[in-house]
Amino acid sequence: MKERHRWPVTLSSAAITTQLGEQGLGQQPWWVEQWMELINGYRFKKRLERAWAYAREGNVLSIRFEGRRVHARVQGSGEEPYKLKIWLDVLSDDDWRYVLEALGQKARWSAQLLAGVMPQDIERAFAASGRRLFPFKLQEVRSECTCLDNRNGKGNLCKHISAVYYLMGERFSEDPFVLFQLRGRSRAQLLSDLAEQRRLLLARKAQEAQEARAAAQAAAPGETTSALPAARCESETGLSPTPAAIRDPNRWWRYDAALDPALVVITPAMEGDTGLDAAGPLPLAEDGRFPEAARHFVDHLKIQGAAFSAGAMATAMAIGREQASQEPA
Length: 329
Fold this sequence. Notes:
The structure is a single chain. This protein has 13 helices and 4 strands. The termini are far apart. By secondary structure, the protein is α+β, with helices and mostly antiparallel strands. The chain is flat and about 85 Å long. Helix 1 runs antiparallel to helix 7 and helix 9 (187-219) packs across helix 10 (230-237). The longest helix has 34 residues, at 293-326. It has a domain at 256-329. The chain is 48% helix and 7% strand.
């Protein structure tokens, strides 16, 4: 057999590994597990065992995107490597319009995708178009291979395709946007369209609020817009009028009213009542190679927060003692 070579490999905008480590995929995000469940349910287990060996031993020589399909070369027992391609059905522009409208309704979805995390309820957005992001069954993953199994019609999922399938799962763990690309939208396209969708949604809500205030003012001409009851705006638009202190950035960090020192009490944050606790789970990107990285990052933030809190307390107490010493007896 001729010497095997490793050709450059690209998938989406980053390189994809063409060989699994000894431990295989290891712990993976939920979207990778969902992808792998499809192939693990394949009935020809011996074929999957051989595919797993191919993925680990470097038989997959190259994987690349061409358009919206994955093309690969896999070295079998013959002289020449087999050529194969894998693809999913692409969503139409109308389908993507429904999906983007649904995604734009939830800021959380946008934040998680921007952080490289697949929202666990992402299929709810795709349900708006009657389509799915993830294939529902293995037969929905289209594939072709030049090997004998495929040419003789013995089975579409040969060991060469299966080996590439495993490696695609590894890539999904690093970049969930690959799934979107297989469905017809690149990462850049999706984020650009999503940002535009959010901008239009916020502009529409602002226009509706403005029209509601104008209508309410017309109904009560003796009142100014700022004096209109907040409950009326909320009932008509679902939005509360923006307080002046929020509209004017110059007032964000000022409080000009005098405070009674007896009413000001400075205490450390209670356990479980810090800013990080109030924010809830952070949409941090996950990497199967470093499963504890996100937790270590949050722990580091908590340590830093506690240090800053202690410093602020010390500063406040020092100022308080200084002011107390200057008061007349």
